[in-house]
Write a structure and sequence with these properties.
Organism: Brassica napus (Rape)
Structural class: mainly beta
Shape: elongated
Radius of gyration: 15 Å
Strand order of the largest sheet: 1-2
Oligomer: single chain
Protein name: (rape) hypothetical protein
Distance between the termini: 29 Å
Number of helices: 0
């Protein structure tokens, strides 16, 4: 069975089990050095094959 492609524009803002193939353009993480490098947040810039960026 062929797997149909799903793009960011097809996703809804609810829980789902869809898989999207995307390119990771940028990755940033912030760590709290006063707490032993505890991870505070992560930001990612992703792009699908339709050039949709989130």
């Amino acid at each position: 069975m062929a797997i149909s492609k799903i793009f960011f524009s097809d996703l809804k803002s609810s829980k789902c089990s869809s898989v999207v193939e995307a390119r990771l353009l940028r990755y940033w993480e912030a760590r709290n050095v006063k707490r032993g490098g505890e991870l505070m947040w992560i930001n990612m810039l992703l792009m699908d094959v339709n050039s949709t960026i989130i």
